[in-house]
Amino acid sequence: MNSRARQLGTKVVYQIYIRSFCDSDGDGTGDLRGITLKLDYLKDLGVDIVWITPFFVSPQNDNGYDVADYRAIDPRFGTMEDFEELAREARARGIELMLDMVFNHTSTEHEWFQKALAGDPKYLAYYKFVDAEPGATAENPGEPPTNWESKFGGNAWAYEPRLNKWYLHLFHLTQADLDWDNPAVRAELADVLRFWQDKGVSCFRFDVVNLISKPEGWPSDETDGKHFYSDGPRVHEYLQEMVREGGIDGNVTVGEMSATSLENCIRYTNPANHEMAMVFNFHHLKVDYAGGDKWELMEPDIDALRTLFRTWQEGMTAGGGWNSLFWSNHDQPRPNSRFGDTDRYWYESSTLLPTCTHLMRGTPYIYQGEEIGQTITDFTSIAQYRDVESLNYYQIIQERGHTPEEAFEIVHARSRDDGRTPMAWDASENAGFTTGTPWLGLNANHVQINAETEMADPHSVRAYFKRLIALRKAEPVISEGDIRFVDGAGDKVIAYERTLDGTRVLVQCNFSGQEQQALPTDGGELLIANYDSPSAQETLHPWEAVAHIWR
Ligand code: GLC
Questions:
Q1: pTM for the whole thing?
Q2: Where does the pLDDT of residue 1 fall: very low under 50, low under 70, confident under 90, or very high at 90 and above?
Q3: Active-site annotation holds for 263
Q4: Pocket test for ligand 1, best of 331, 387, 391, 420 (most atoms within 8 A of CB)
Q5: Are 394 and 295 contacting, i.e. CB atoms less than 8 angstroms apart?
Q6: pLDDT tens string 248-297
Q7: What residues are paired with 324 via a beta bridge?
Q8: For the domain with range 111-177, which CATH number is right: 3.40.30.10, 3.30.230.10, 3.90.400.10, 1.10.3720.10?
Q9: Is residue 207 annotated as a catalytic residue, yes or no?
Q10: Are strands 69-73 and 56-57 parallel, antiparallel or unpaired?
C-alpha cells in the first residue's frame, strides 16, 4: 500500500462553519477566538485537521464565499493576531488548520473587480466580461452571452451598464467568475497560497475548483450549461500549475468538485498528476432529488446510493485516486434528518451514517454538530431563513407551480440553513453559542441535543464518533485496505468489506426502520456496532450498523 494511503488514510478532518461555531464576543456570529476556545473539545474528539470556512474580508452575501480580500480577515471574525494565536494553539495540540480558498470567483467588492468597473483594462481581463449589444441599457440589456443558469437561480450573466458589458457569475451576482485563462490571475492566486503558507498553513480546501476553466466561444444548448464548464477544458493544466507555483504539491488538499465524473476525479487525485490530494463529489447526496432536481422531494433511493458508493469507492481505488468521505457540510441538510429517522431512531440514525462512511477507503470529514447528532431546523416561517439560495428558490419553486406551503416544505427539507444553525454546546437559552442574538435561529431541541450532554454520556453519539476515529488510527485495514462491496444482504442494506494482508472487515448498514437480512459473520470478532446487542447473524435491527473483523 502506498505512503499516500498512510498519510491521508489515518486522518480525520473536522469542518467548522465559522459563523455558527462559537461566538467569543457576543455579537451573535462565531469567530476565530471562539474556535480557539473549543480546541480542547476538538482534541478530545480526536480529529487531526480543522477546515475553517472563509473568514476573509467579505460583504457576506454568500457568507464569506464572496471574498473581497484574500489576505485580510473580516473584522466580524477577528484579527490576524487572533488567527495566529489559533494556529499556534492548534499546533500545540497536534491539530492542523485547513483554509478555504474561493478561487473560482471574487466578490464584486474585491479591488480587482472595482478597478475593472472603473475601466482599467488590466483588471477587466481578470473576469469574464463580454460586450453587450451597442445601445443596450439596464432596462433593455438584450440577450446574455449564454443561457447558463446561476447555481443560485436565474441567468448566470449580469449586465453592467457602466461598461456596457455582461459579466459571468455562476453563483450570486456579487460573485464574479475570475478569468483563469489569464496568466496574471493564476499568478495572483498562487501568491495567495504562498501568503497563507508563510503564516504556517499547509492544508487547503478549494471551493468549486473544477469550474475554473470555461470553454471558448460561449456555447449554449437546451441544458443549464453546467456540462460546458464543469471539469472544463484546461482544468487539469491549471490545477497542476497552481499546485506547482503555489508550492503545495504533496500537501493535504481537497478540491470541491461540482457535477464531476469518476474519470476526472481519478485524474485530480492520482499523485502522478500533482493536482489535489483528495476531492469531494456530491453524487451520493442527490439520491433524494426527484428527477435530479434538488427542489423536488423524494425518499432516498438506497439502491442508487449503494451503486454510487460502489462505483466511487471501487473506481477511485482502481484508478489510484483518493476520496473524501462525508454526508454533511454547510451546504447540506443534516444527514440524520435526511437519510435517517430522527423521530424514532435518532441515536441509531446519527451513528449509522458515520459508520457507513468512516470505515470506507478515504479521509472522513465531520461537519460541526454531526458528532452530537444535531438535526435540521425547526423553522416554521420563511422569514427565519438567511441563505441567499433558499430565499431565491422559495420564489422560484412557487413560479414553477408549487403553493407557498409546498415551497416552504421543500425549502425546510433542502435549505443550506438546515446545516447552518449554531452549534449546540449546552442546554442554555442560546445553547452556549453566544451571549447575544444568534445570527440564525437555534433548533429548540438543543435542550436535549448538545455537546455537554453528549460528553457526559459514555454511550452518546459523540462517544461513538470517537470510537470510529480511534478505529481508523488503530486498524491499518481501515486506513489503507482495499474495498469491495458485497451483495446478498437485505435490499436496504449497504455492505462492504475492507481487506489488507489477510485481515478482513465486513461493514453492514441497514438504511431502514425494518429488520433486514444480514450477511454471515461466523468467526468474526465484533469491531463496532450501534446496538448494545448487535444482530445475531440472521437479521439487522432497524438502522443498525455493525462491523466485524477477521484477523
Ligand atoms: C461552494 C460552497 C458554497 C458556496 C459556493 C460558491 O459550493 O461550499 O457554500 O456558496 O461554493 O462559492
A1: 0.97
A2: very low
A3: no
A4: 331
A5: no
A6: 999 999 999 999 999 999 999 999 999 999 999 999 999 999 999 999 99
A7: 363
A8: 3.90.400.10
A9: yes
A10: antiparallel
